Amino acid sequence: MVRARSKTTTAARKKRTRKLTKGFRLGRHNLYRQARVTLIRGRKFAFRDRKAKKREFRRLWIVRINAACRMRGLRYSEFMHAMQLANVTLDRKALSEIAIHDPAAFDKLVELAKKHLPKPAEAAKK
């Protein structure tokens, strides 16, 4: 009886792995064992960094809004609190884009926020 071999299956699997490691340097794209380890590691980083990317962008938007607010005499936290009181539902991404590309509109938002800020005497009563 002839022994069954799995060369075609194994070759196809290895070929698929090598195709996925295109662009990797040195033996990491050529040698199957190294390619497999690098691929696993790369996917782990990709999964982690998809989450981290969202955090980093939110931090960037907050920094931009804070800088724009401070130029107009208001702190970020005061501005965001006043926006909530004014029922303005713009998210941080939109606010940072407005601050960069349309300063006049951001000036109006800051004025709206200043109107809705609680007075210092009212804040002390609470």
Largest sheet: none
Query: Low-confidence segments, ≥5 residues, pLDDT <50?
Result: none
Distance between the termini: 90 Å
The helix/strand class is mainly alpha
The number of E-state strands comes to 0
Q: What is the CATH C-level name?
A: Mainly Alpha
- What's the number of helices? 7
CATH level-4 homologous superfamily: Ribosomal protein L20, C-terminal domain
CATH architecture annotation name: Orthogonal Bundle
The fraction of residues assigned to DSSP E strands is: under 5%
Following the backbone from N to C, one meets helices and strands in this order, namely HHHHHHH
Using only CA atoms, what is the Rg?
27 Å
Would you write up a description of this structure?
The chain is mainly α and 126 residues long. The chain has a single domain, classed as c-terminal domain of poly(a) binding protein. It has 7 helices and no strands.
